[in-house]
Write a structure and sequence with these properties.
The protein contains ten helices and eight strands. By secondary structure, the chain is mainly alpha-helical. It has three domains: 65 residues, no CATH class; 94 residues, no CATH class; 103 residues. It has a three-stranded antiparallel beta sheet with strand order 1-2-3, covered by helices on one side. It has a three-stranded antiparallel beta sheet with strand order 7-4-8, with no helix packed on it. Helix 6 crosses helix 7.
Length: 284
């Protein structure tokens, strides 16, 4: 990607931005954190160019005020080690992550490792999204995050009464996608659809269908991560009904989730499943 003054993300290639609270370069798209310290300078009151800390020799660490590196002059501030306030911010962040993880476990859908992984990813993605929007906002209340999670896993959109904060919803979807923590979504979908008793075998089968739908959407050019909660609902319906097309559609329609059939192109996916089943029968 061109014109990236802070460099590009090694994961997805997007332009890195500066996290002003942690003084780290972060990717606003995938949440990657460049953990090396950075320098910055003020040019006409605005942040200038960032330089990786290892580009400076040790002899230039102390009292440096006029350094030329890649055209940078008048270095005003060195930000390589955390100050007391930064350490406090880090501690507060760890505390928030812990509280969010406990709240997720409290829903009954998350194991400890799943909750911790999702909580950490949510914090990373939420902050990156808010910085990309030019907003220096604090993290949302833990209770609010759980409420948004409840809303987006209900299958309802904002227009249909979901009433959720879009930034929180987007950060949650990104967190599920980047961590691969999908089992909690399947467990929630089982409760939502009320078609079978939750079991790990059923959850595992739901994950297989989830991966199949996700792959199909990516191959057809859709941003699959935006539909991650709907994919979980459709995959769970497929797992609980044995993959029978008519039964799957009936379950979704009965739960007022007919829109999922169209949005996820389920008709095409179900046709593929039927074709595969027919081929297997012929081979037998």
């Amino acid at each position: 990607m061109t014109n990236c003054g802070n460099g590009v993300c090694p994961i997805c290639g997007s332009c890195l931005i500066l996290d002003m609270r942690e003084w780290m370069l972060v990717c606003p798209v995938c949440g990657y954190v460049f953990k090396d310290g950075v320098f910055y300078e003020y040019l006409t009151g605005r942040l200038g160019t960032y330089v990786r800390s290892e580009l400076l020799g040790k002899g230039r660490w102390a009292g440096v005020m006029g350094v030329k590196i890649r055209g940078i002059t008048g270095l005003r501030q060195w930000i390589a080690s955390k100050t007391n306030s930064q350490r406090s911010t880090g501690e507060a962040m760890a505390n928030y992550t812990e509280r969010l993880a406990k709240a997720l476990i409290g829903t009954g859908d998350f194991g400890e490792e799943e909750a911790r992984a999702l909580a950490e990813a949510f914090v990373r993605h939420y902050r990156a999204l808010r910085y990309r929007d030019g907003v220096r906002a604090s993290l949302p209340k833990v209770e609010t995050v759980v409420e948004v999670l409840d809303s987006i896993t209900s299958g309802r959109s904002n227009a249909e009464g979901g009433r959720y904060d879009m930034a929180i919803a987007s950060a949650l979807r990104r967190a599920f996608t980047t961590t691969g923590v999908y089992k909690p979504l399947t467990r929630r979908a089982l409760r939502l659809l009320r078609i079978a008793e939750p079991s790990e075998d059923l959850v595992e089968l739901g994950i297989k269908y989830f991966e199949m739908i996700y792959k199909h959407l990516k191959e057809t050019g859709k941003e699959a991560r935006k539909y991650v909660t709907w994919i979980a609902i459709a995959a769970t319906a497929m797992a609980a009904t044995g993959g029978r097309p008519m039964a799957i559609k009936a379950v979704l329609v009965r739960n007022r989730l007919k829109k999922i059939i169209k949005e996820l192109d389920l008709d095409k996916i179900l046709e593929n499943i039927e074709s595969q089943n027919a081929e297997n029968e012929i081979k037998l």
